[in-house]
Amino acid sequence: MRAALIVLALACAGCGGAHQTATVSTTAAKPAAPPLGLRVGLAGPIELAPIHGVSFVRAPLATMPALPLVLVSAETAKLADVLAAAKRYPTSHYAYLGGSLSGSRQPNVVGIVLRDDEAAVLGGFVAGLVAAEEGGVSPRVAWVGPQEATLADAFAEGVHDAAPNVTILRAFAADAPAACKEAALAAIGRGAVAAMAHNGLCADAAVEGAHQQNDVGLRVSDFELLNVPVGVLVRDAQRGVYHGGEDLVFGAASGAIGVARLDRRISGAAGIRARTAAQQMANGLRPSG
Fold first, then answer.
1. How much is the pTM?
2. What gap in Å lies between CA 48 and CA 42, rounded to an integer?
3. Residues of CATH 3.40.50.2300 domain(s) within the chain?
4. Where does 116-223+260-282 sit in CATH, by number?
5. Cα radius of gyration (the chain)
6. For 135-169, how does the pLDDT look when each residue is reduced to its tens digit (9 = 90+)?
7. Who's near 220: CB < 8 A, 6+ residues apart?
């Protein structure tokens, strides 16, 4: 009898008549907002691949907000302006990409120096490959721009690593776009099939002149892989480590010298050999044809 009463009680639990309905209250879980991650400022013509956990803020240096890390292109910003911004926002950290601090020891500014001499060697190697393919019996290539003897010599070394019989023209010019373009056109008029310049507006103008004549135009920055030093800075920043008051130097051994971009006029075979040469340099070897 007791068991029957228990069964009956369970059967009637929650009974409230024909008009009573049960209600269930549920609260939908709101998805958590994705973390912003590390916010990094980009000031200048800096092209980078996406980096996991990083959101980039692109703005001129003069209007860049206070951020944990700001990357500034040395092509378009003066060191004095970077140092001034770093004093204005002492809790931000600035990396001067492609430039030296020139003795400054400001604790929240680091210089990122790429071995542009090694980049010039690799660019010269590519120019030599182009000359070997297209230069005929008397192939010529040109170094264009201000008298930067170290870079011009490095370019010549790279050319001769690829093709010893190529003649190098040194088309020196003032560091001004019009002068650099005129010098490139003059070198092409003398038979150069490829022209290389350093960086900045002068290099852009020299490449434009080469392209007008359907020749190959090269910049030193075409052979500098900024993602390598930037990756180091970002990974350290994500761990709360920031660099300052010094220059950090990156070269072929660190993987920072390689083929960032190639003129579309360069053949596929030459492109493959250029990337092989970059790997040789990373291994401490001279590039070889």
1. 0.83
2. 10
3. 38-114+226-250, 116-223+260-282
4. 3.40.50.2300
5. 30
6. 778 999 999 999 999 999 999 999 999 999 999 99
7. 116, 119, 120, 123, 151, 196, 197, 198, 199, 203
